[in-house]
Write a structure and sequence with these properties.
The chain is built from seven helices and five strands, in the order E-H-E-H-H-E-H-E-H-H-E-H. The chain has about 180 residues and is of the alpha/beta class. The chain has one domain: P-loop containing nucleotide triphosphate hydrolases (Rossmann fold). The protein has a five-stranded parallel beta sheet with strand order 2-3-1-4-5, sandwiched between helices. The longest helix is centred in the first third of the chain and has 24 residues. It is globular, with a radius of gyration of 16 Å.
Length: about 180
Protein backbone atom coordinates (compact mmCIF):
# COMPACT_ATOMS: atom_id res chain seq x y z
CA UNK A 1 0.00 0.00 0.00
CA UNK A 2 1.31 3.41 -0.90
CA UNK A 3 1.22 6.20 1.67
CA UNK A 4 -0.35 8.34 -1.04
CA UNK A 5 -3.43 6.10 -1.27
CA UNK A 6 -4.98 7.50 1.91
CA UNK A 7 -5.89 10.99 3.05
CA UNK A 8 -6.30 11.71 6.77
CA UNK A 9 -7.75 14.94 8.15
CA UNK A 10 -6.76 16.25 11.56
CA UNK A 11 -7.65 19.44 13.42
CA UNK A 12 -9.75 20.77 16.24
CA UNK A 13 -13.49 20.22 16.44
CA UNK A 14 -15.38 22.41 14.01
CA UNK A 15 -12.49 22.75 11.55
CA UNK A 16 -14.49 21.00 8.81
CA UNK A 17 -12.76 17.61 8.73
CA UNK A 18 -15.91 15.62 7.98
CA UNK A 19 -17.29 18.05 5.41
CA UNK A 20 -13.97 18.48 3.59
CA UNK A 21 -13.27 14.75 3.91
CA UNK A 22 -16.51 13.87 2.14
CA UNK A 23 -15.64 16.28 -0.69
CA UNK A 24 -12.14 14.79 -1.05
CA UNK A 25 -13.52 11.24 -1.06
CA UNK A 26 -16.05 12.12 -3.75
CA UNK A 27 -13.42 13.92 -5.85
CA UNK A 28 -10.91 11.07 -5.68
CA UNK A 29 -13.47 8.23 -5.75
CA UNK A 30 -12.43 6.92 -2.33
CA UNK A 31 -14.37 5.51 0.60
CA UNK A 32 -14.99 8.06 3.35
CA UNK A 33 -14.71 7.26 7.05
CA UNK A 34 -15.12 9.40 10.16
CA UNK A 35 -13.49 7.88 13.24
CA UNK A 36 -16.09 9.36 15.61
CA UNK A 37 -18.95 7.95 13.51
CA UNK A 38 -17.20 4.56 13.41
CA UNK A 39 -16.96 4.55 17.22
CA UNK A 40 -20.63 5.50 17.54
CA UNK A 41 -21.61 2.73 15.11
CA UNK A 42 -19.56 0.16 17.04
CA UNK A 43 -20.89 1.14 20.46
CA UNK A 44 -24.45 2.06 19.48
CA UNK A 45 -24.25 5.32 21.45
CA UNK A 46 -23.21 8.92 20.83
CA UNK A 47 -19.75 10.19 21.81
CA UNK A 48 -21.07 12.25 24.80
CA UNK A 49 -22.55 9.05 26.30
CA UNK A 50 -19.19 7.27 25.98
CA UNK A 51 -17.51 10.24 27.72
CA UNK A 52 -20.16 10.15 30.46
CA UNK A 53 -19.83 6.41 31.11
CA UNK A 54 -16.15 5.71 30.38
CA UNK A 55 -14.59 9.15 30.67
CA UNK A 56 -12.20 10.63 28.14
CA UNK A 57 -9.64 7.85 28.76
CA UNK A 58 -12.18 5.16 27.81
CA UNK A 59 -13.14 7.04 24.68
CA UNK A 60 -9.47 7.53 23.67
CA UNK A 61 -8.87 3.78 23.99
CA UNK A 62 -11.79 3.09 21.63
CA UNK A 63 -10.54 5.81 19.28
CA UNK A 64 -7.05 4.29 19.14
CA UNK A 65 -8.47 0.87 18.21
CA UNK A 66 -10.70 2.39 15.49
CA UNK A 67 -7.86 4.44 13.99
CA UNK A 68 -5.52 1.43 13.97
CA UNK A 69 -8.10 -0.50 11.94
CA UNK A 70 -8.98 2.38 9.62
CA UNK A 71 -5.36 3.29 8.83
CA UNK A 72 -4.75 -0.32 7.82
CA UNK A 73 -7.20 0.18 4.94
CA UNK A 74 -6.17 1.43 1.52
CA UNK A 75 -7.78 4.05 -0.70
CA UNK A 76 -9.71 5.92 2.00
CA UNK A 77 -10.29 9.42 3.26
CA UNK A 78 -10.48 9.55 7.06
CA UNK A 79 -11.73 12.41 9.22
CA UNK A 80 -10.32 11.93 12.72
CA UNK A 81 -11.65 13.23 16.00
CA UNK A 82 -10.00 16.41 17.26
CA UNK A 83 -8.10 14.60 20.01
CA UNK A 84 -6.87 11.68 17.94
CA UNK A 85 -3.37 13.17 17.81
CA UNK A 86 -3.03 12.91 21.60
CA UNK A 87 -2.10 9.24 21.14
CA UNK A 88 1.44 8.50 19.96
CA UNK A 89 0.12 5.30 18.33
CA UNK A 90 -2.47 7.30 16.37
CA UNK A 91 0.12 9.83 15.25
CA UNK A 92 2.37 7.02 14.05
CA UNK A 93 -0.46 5.23 12.21
CA UNK A 94 -1.57 8.44 10.53
CA UNK A 95 1.92 9.58 9.56
CA UNK A 96 3.01 6.18 8.24
CA UNK A 97 -0.10 5.20 6.28
CA UNK A 98 -1.36 8.26 4.45
CA UNK A 99 -1.11 11.93 3.62
CA UNK A 100 -2.12 13.93 6.70
CA UNK A 101 -3.98 17.20 6.20
CA UNK A 102 -4.26 19.62 9.12
CA UNK A 103 -7.28 21.89 8.86
CA UNK A 104 -6.16 24.73 11.13
CA UNK A 105 -8.67 27.15 12.55
CA UNK A 106 -8.35 29.78 15.24
CA UNK A 107 -10.13 29.04 18.52
CA UNK A 108 -12.33 32.11 17.95
CA UNK A 109 -13.43 30.93 14.50
CA UNK A 110 -14.00 27.37 15.71
CA UNK A 111 -16.04 28.67 18.65
CA UNK A 112 -18.36 30.46 16.21
CA UNK A 113 -18.84 27.18 14.34
CA UNK A 114 -19.34 24.93 17.40
CA UNK A 115 -20.99 27.07 20.06
CA UNK A 116 -24.49 25.65 19.52
CA UNK A 117 -23.37 22.03 19.09
CA UNK A 118 -24.28 19.96 22.16
CA UNK A 119 -22.57 16.84 20.76
CA UNK A 120 -19.09 18.07 21.80
CA UNK A 121 -18.43 16.92 25.37
CA UNK A 122 -15.16 18.85 25.77
CA UNK A 123 -17.01 22.14 25.15
CA UNK A 124 -19.67 21.59 27.81
CA UNK A 125 -17.96 24.03 30.17
CA UNK A 126 -18.66 27.50 31.55
CA UNK A 127 -16.23 29.04 29.02
CA UNK A 128 -16.08 26.97 25.81
CA UNK A 129 -13.97 29.58 23.99
CA UNK A 130 -11.29 29.38 26.67
CA UNK A 131 -11.47 25.58 26.45
CA UNK A 132 -10.89 25.79 22.67
CA UNK A 133 -7.89 28.04 23.30
CA UNK A 134 -6.46 25.46 25.72
CA UNK A 135 -7.06 22.62 23.26
CA UNK A 136 -5.44 24.60 20.45
CA UNK A 137 -2.37 25.34 22.56
CA UNK A 138 -2.05 21.67 23.51
CA UNK A 139 -2.84 20.09 20.14
CA UNK A 140 -1.54 22.49 17.47
CA UNK A 141 2.07 21.22 17.84
CA UNK A 142 0.84 17.62 17.52
CA UNK A 143 -1.22 18.40 14.41
CA UNK A 144 1.82 20.08 12.87
CA UNK A 145 4.02 17.12 13.80
CA UNK A 146 1.94 14.69 11.73
CA UNK A 147 0.78 17.02 8.93
CA UNK A 148 2.03 16.79 5.37
CA UNK A 149 -0.26 19.69 4.41
CA UNK A 150 -1.62 22.55 6.54
CA UNK A 151 -4.63 24.57 5.37
CA UNK A 152 -6.06 27.50 7.29
CA UNK A 153 -9.82 27.17 7.48
CA UNK A 154 -10.38 30.86 8.21
CA UNK A 155 -13.53 32.20 6.67
CA UNK A 156 -13.05 30.52 3.30
CA UNK A 157 -15.79 28.28 2.00
CA UNK A 158 -15.55 24.52 2.01
CA UNK A 159 -15.28 24.63 -1.78
CA UNK A 160 -12.41 27.11 -1.48
CA UNK A 161 -10.59 24.87 1.00
CA UNK A 162 -11.14 21.89 -1.26
CA UNK A 163 -9.65 23.74 -4.25
CA UNK A 164 -6.55 24.62 -2.20
CA UNK A 165 -6.25 20.99 -1.11
CA UNK A 166 -6.67 19.61 -4.63
CA UNK A 167 -3.79 21.83 -5.75
CA UNK A 168 -1.52 20.83 -2.87
CA UNK A 169 -2.35 17.14 -3.23
CA UNK A 170 -1.60 17.32 -6.95
CA UNK A 171 1.83 18.81 -6.18
CA UNK A 172 2.50 16.11 -3.58
CA UNK A 173 1.47 13.31 -5.93
CA UNK A 174 3.78 14.70 -8.61
CA UNK A 175 6.64 14.85 -6.10
CA UNK A 176 6.85 18.63 -6.24
CA UNK A 177 7.52 20.83 -3.20
CA UNK A 178 4.59 22.48 -1.48
CA UNK A 179 4.51 26.25 -1.08
CA UNK A 180 5.27 27.42 2.46
CA UNK A 181 1.91 29.12 2.89
CA UNK A 182 -0.81 27.40 4.88
CA UNK A 183 -3.70 28.84 2.81
Amino acid sequence: MSKRDNLYLVGLMGAGKTTVGRLLAKHYGCAFHDSDHEIEARTGVKIPVIFEIEGEAGFRKREEAAIAELTALSGIVLATGGGAVLSAANRSNLRNNGVVIYLRGTPEHLYERTRHDRNRPLLQTADPLERLRELYKQRDPLYREVADIVVDTGRQSVAGMARVLFGKLDLLRRGLPLPDTAG
